[in-house]
Amino acid sequence: MSKKSRILVLLVVILSVVTLSACSTGTAQTDTKDETGVVEQAVNDYFANMPEDIYKIDQVAFVDKVKAGEAMTILDIRSADAYAQGHIKGAISMPWGPNFAENLTKIPNDKPVMIYCVTGQTAGQTVLLLNVAGFDTKSVNLGWNLGISKVEGVDAVTETTVNAFDASVNTEIDADIQKAIEDYYTGLSDVAETTYANYKITEDAAKAALDAKDASVTFLDARKADDFAKGHIEGAVNIPFGKGMETQFSTLPMDKTIIVYCYTGQTAAQTVAGLRLLGYDAVSLNSGTGTAATGTAGWTNKGYPLVTN
């Protein structure tokens, strides 16, 4: 073999090694939860196609529908003990947590699904997850404690009867979405003993992070731009909750914990669920900035300040 031929062979070998190395690192598929992009697309569609009612139903309107006997599946995602003490007529107990994901296939998808929790925040997370899974779902405004239980005449549609799913129902869920929702709830165990239990953070813990100028934390204000301008948590960025907000998610840092807040915590919870499915470390601020409905809960009800700069 001539010297020129040996050089050519050597170059081919070197090129082959470099190519194989690139394939084994930079161009290989990474071990992600959403290799097909199905989950990401479903989350983006959730926000892109957001209806005017923002996936919520007023508590009075909900009780009226129950009284009228409208066809719907009602899920009570409070604890089993709370359910036993009294729940909306026809509601099925499906406590929020890992078992929730395991029971998705039991939910019928041929009629609307209404869900409620204690104050609306965990239902806010769940309403996104269920819609992403293909269910036409709305959460009841302010949950049981602050909303439903205060509706005039609700006693007429409150019961202690234990209701069950139709055993014949076996709804098909996309495998990638099912896995993502299972991982979502499994992740609760990782934050159970931290300040981020249930993917929420207390007002006090959030204020402590702010005062400490914790560089690993950033605040996202999901309220309307006008309200943000009137006063917001220091350093917060504003992405108003609503149709199309998903187009701005890419501006958020992937390497920080994003504390999302709104008015009462419900729409922030929807945002948190979406962000977490997209790979962000997001949690919602307990009861948001606070309103009369949240009583002593919420940022301003705690006496914490908002800034305008």
From TrEMBL:
<feature type="domain" description="Rhodanese">
    <location>
        <begin position="213"/>
        <end position="308"/>
    </location>
</feature>
<feature type="domain" description="Rhodanese">
    <location>
        <begin position="68"/>
        <end position="156"/>
    </location>
</feature>
<dbReference type="Pfam" id="PF00581">
    <property type="entry name" value="Rhodanese"/>
</dbReference>
<keyword id="KW-0732">Signal</keyword>
<dbReference type="GO" id="GO:0016740">
    <property type="term" value="F:transferase activity"/>
</dbReference>
<dbReference type="InterPro" id="IPR036873">
    <property type="entry name" value="Rhodanese-like_dom_sf"/>
</dbReference>
<dbReference type="InterPro" id="IPR050229">
    <property type="entry name" value="GlpE_sulfurtransferase"/>
</dbReference>
<keyword id="KW-0808">Transferase</keyword>
<dbReference type="InterPro" id="IPR001763">
    <property type="entry name" value="Rhodanese-like_dom"/>
</dbReference>
<protein>
    <submittedName>
        <fullName>Sulfurtransferase</fullName>
    </submittedName>
</protein>
<feature type="signal peptide">
    <location>
        <begin position="1"/>
        <end position="22"/>
    </location>
</feature>
